Automatic annotation (TrEMBL):
It is a multi-pass membrane protein. This is Mn transporter. Keywords: Membrane, Transmembrane, Transmembrane helix, Transport. It is found in: Membrane. Pfam families: Nramp. The chain crosses the membrane at residues 45-62, 82-100, 121-140, 146-171, 183-201, 221-243, 264-290, 310-338, 359-379, 391-411, 423-445. It comes from Dictyobacter aurantiacus.
């Protein structure tokens, strides 16, 4: 689902620097010694690992329940014919993420800060409401994922969802979440199994090549719906909030930005490569098993079937472990980052270091988002995969509003100076925003007209 999602990995220079000089550790006698310098080649390797590490790891955490549901459904219902969508979305994700990262580097402010400072109050409230709606949907999806993963171990939703919510709230409120998020992150690496499953399922590589480079559009509602859902999954609004805030907090200037730009693009490619193989593996197993008719995935257990060529009888349990780790990771960070952004936008006190009395809006919003996710996840007989798809469809429908706000800000010379978008960048970015808007409007129009018996799509 995309880079910079879910994991708050920040470089805390203040832990190692004082007055812009490295803190030299003292030995047992109290004497200080300059740090030992490693060979130049070794330092170079460490430098580039430092650039790519956080982005790549965070990108893998983006393969959360909603992402798995979307990409699995693309493959199981439409085979290899939607692979080209991921190529386009990789470019789109890289462009949008780069713009937000660049704004963070130039202005030193988060996206919600810039929205508050540069838009009228009513428009600011509207845009932040869109963010809340989109983020709230994703948060709900994470708790649905927690419940669905625990269901595969025989734990009912009415127990699993509240336990997950209580665990996340206590970890964040007690300040110990950062100690366990790495464990949750490691659990998500099970989704690398999709790559091996894709090869072991012996897919039609000719059809894969065609589906990747030849765009095809099927004139039916399910295909258009899946494209809009894929857009909302891959370029989710909360990603923009996170990347800009992360760059601003790390204090990255335009002098160092070339490295951040590399990480943005490497992260986008890495993230969507995993998504690509999820589509391939589900197409090679579930779609082929349906003899090309397509099959709608109805549960987490069915989504796990695509891992059978590699994991065999362990597929369901491994899938459950990976989904549980990704969902817990997201369920901790997303409500927290959403509460930060909304508090920031409206000037309220914020921060996990503050008490409820000091930051009531921040803690109230954080708690409310978790409670909402838990309540929805506890509902009986929940159509898990379909609900996850609908929540990311909502993201896709709301995304155009966020994209146009970003494009307005990035082209303001008073904010960005000479770092505004160049013409070619604007052409591609506005084309993306217009196409996404067109798809969203077309889908909504088809749904409205459908109530009156008028069909725009087959």
């Amino acid at each position: 689902m995309g880079v910079y999602i879910l994991l708050k990995i920040h470089i805390r220079e203040e832990s190692f620097m004082e007055n812009n000089k490295p803190i030299i550790p003292a030995d047992k006698s109290g004497a200080t010694h300059p740090p030992r310098r490693h060979p130049r080649f070794f330092r170079t390797i460490l430098f580039y690992l430092g650039i790519f590490g956080p982005g790549l790891i965070a990108a893998n955490a983006g393969n959360d329940p909603g992402g798995i549901a979307t990409y699995s459904s693309m493959g199981s219902q439409f085979g290899y014919s939607m692979l080209w969508v991921m190529v386009v979305l990789t470019i789109g994700m890289g462009l949008v993420q780069e713009m937000c990262a660049r704004m963070g580097a130039v202005t030193g402010e988060g996206l919600s800060d810039l929205i508050r400072e540069n838009f009228p109050l009513r428009l600011t409230v509207f845009i932040m409401f869109i963010f809340l709606l989109a983020n709230g949907g994703v948060i709900v999806s994470e708790f649905i994922g927690i419940a669905a993963a625990l269901n595969l171990f025989g734990v009912p939703s009415w127990i699993g969802a509240p336990l997950g919510g209580l665990l996340i709230w206590l970890l964040v409120a007690r300040g110990s979440y950062r100690h366990v998020e790495k464990i949750f992150l490691v659990l998500t690496f099970v989704f690398f199994a999709y790559i091996f499953s894709a090869f072991l399922a012996k897919p039609d590589w000719g059809a894969i090549a065609t589906g990747t480079v030849v765009p095809t559009i099927q004139p039916n509602g399910g295909y258009i719906l899946m494209i809009v859902t894929a857009v909302g999954t891959t370029i989710s609004p909360y990603m923009q909030l996170y990347i800009q805030s992360a760059v601003a907090e790390k204090g990255i200037s335009m002098k160092e930005f070339k490295y951040e730009r590399i990480e943005v693009w490497v992260g986008a490619i890495f993230s969507n490569t995993i998504a690509f193989f999820i589509i391939v593996s589900t197409a090679a197993t579930l779609f082929v098993a349906s003899h090309g008719k397509g099959v709608a995935i109805g549960s987490a257990a069915e989504a796990a079937l695509a891992l059978k060529p590699f994991l065999g009888i362990f597929a369901s349990r491994a899938f459950a472990v990976g989904m549980l780790g990704a969902a817990l990771l997201a369920a901790g960070v997303l409500p927290l980052s959403t509460s930060y952004s909304l508090s920031e936008a409206f000037g309220f006190e914020r921060g996990v270091g503050r008490t409820f009395q000091q930051a009531p809006f921040f803690w109230g919003m954080f708690t409310l988002l978790i409670v909402l996710g838990v309540i929805v996840a506890m509902l009986p007989n929940l159509p898990v995969i379909q609900l996850l798809l609908n929540l990311y469809l909502l993201n896709g429908l709301l995304l155009p509003i966020i994209l146009f706000a970003i494009l307005y800000l990035i082209n303001q010379k008073r904010l960005m100076g000479r770092h505004v978008n160049r013409l070619a960048y604007n052409v591609v970015s506005y084309a993306l925003a217009i196409i996404v808007s067109g798809l969203a409007i077309f889908y909504l129009l088809s749904q409205v007209l459908g109530f009156f018996g008028v069909k725009l799509l087959g």
